Amino acid sequence: MKKTANYLIALLMLVLIQACTATVEEQRQAETKVPTIFGHYTYGHEVNSFRPCGEKQDFWVKGSNDTLELMTQKYSALVTKLYDEVFVEIKGNFESKASDGFAMDYDGQVNILELVHMKNKHASDCE
Hints:
Blueprint: H1 2-32, E1 36-44, E2 47-52, E3 59-63, H2 65-78, E4 85-95, E5 108-120
Parallel strand pairs: 3-5
Antiparallel strand pairs: 1-2, 1-4, 2-3, 4-5
């Protein structure tokens, strides 16, 4: 009986470890599925927009306060005046058009999860 109890405990521990491992692996896979997107970012009074390379649509930029603050700081360090475009590489997801606020004037929204890179705009950015 003691041996059976030990086997059951060992089996239960293996099942629990496997369950935790699967959860961590699923989380890693979900994190890596966030697409990297390239395009141009514009910031100014009542403007916070992103236009993906090769697109004519403009998207309202949203994200965490930390991400948006980082983007604003880097943007301000690069441009000489508001509303200048800069080239960005971001990780994020496109979302549907907003139903209120300044965002509703755009074709949709992009939720930026990570700013990978930002630089001054050049003609060859999206090639």
